[in-house]
Amino acid sequence: MNETIDEIYRSQSRRVFATLIRLLGDFDRAEEALHDAFAAAAQQWTEETLPANPYAWLVSTGRFRAIDHIRRRARFDASQADIVDSLYPEGEMLEITESEEIEDDMLRLIFTCCHPLIPAEAQMAMALREVCGLTTEEIAHAFLISAPTIAQRIVRAKNRIRTARIPYEVPAKTELPERLAQVLHVIYLVFNEGYSASSGTTIIRADLAAEAIRLGRLLLKLLPDPEVAGLLAMMLLQDSRRLARASASGDLILLADQDRRLWDHRRIREGLAFAAEAMAGESVGSYALQAAIAAEHARAATTERTDWRRIVALYDLLLVAHPSPVIELNRAVAVSMCDGPAAALDIVNGLLSEDRLARYHLAHAAKADFLRQLNRKDEARRSYEMALSFCHQAPEQAFLRKRLAELGDRTER
Fold this sequence. Notes:
Blueprint lengths: L1 H23 L2 H18 L9 H21 L4 H9 L12 H4 L1 H9 L6 H11 L5 H8 L3 H17 L12 H20 L10 H17 L3 H14 L25 H15 L6 H14 L8 H14 L3 H15 L1 H13 L7 H13 L3 H14 L3 H14 L6
């Protein structure tokens, strides 16, 4: 039963949290109610009493526990009584269903995190904390800044929501376009954490990837836009490779070594259709271009038959639309497939010399791979060791150690 509850926590807790925010009107109150609900589940659930709809049970229990807490406080603070009445008028019965309204709660949470009154640097940190459930340490690692700085940003953002009375809602359709970029970026970050977890014992967090795809579908219904279609296409195409990305024991499998028969070809067909829709728009944005790159990989029967020249050209366009050192790094990998590892190594050395990716383990891992291909083993070893020092995901750590072992003993002293 503990394993069942742990699995429900991983897959459902952020949705329960999002709904509790809507019902209780406060982030901290909802966080406390979430933990109370799961604590109650650990005490009460058995194989015989496991509810048919755990999500509904947890939301109801969390809300009732929160109201009980506020009622007890109201004995000492009369202002709390009004809060109780607003949350739960006498005689009202709470019924939670799998309705579209409830499904929108995650989207409401994202729009709240992305409100224009919240500073931009705090929006992303808060979204990763509240939507993904990442720890402040994991977010700090993603942004390459200190955990206390991240914690301060999140606290300030919550205070801004409270003091400015920012509504917990999806804005009117007329307001959607101006908020779209931030919301797309949050969904993108949620998917990235699901596609390749920043830390932990597994490569993939399938629950987060699935939630990002669901939110992408919902957003496309609300606002048919080429960039929304592009993001959804990219997520579907990347997620189509999920079953081939790890071995039965959880070891990382690189794209070149994946069994493409395990790819989800239904998702590929759907993703290709959305990618074509995104590229047919009046203007082509960064998500449409990322979808086009993913489409090239999805169409190719093998790594060798991939159109790497076209991928490099798409990365060139993407760098114009959205300059980023990570995109430059990804482009370097494509360049290595066209022009060899030496050309790619020059690009990565340039990125690392500018200190933009100094603590990004994949940059050091890419450099190590290029050096290994050039038979510069001792330099490759140092780069693999550097990558390992910045890596926090167990399967990637195991992969880097395997690469180090393959290089053998040091030859330089």
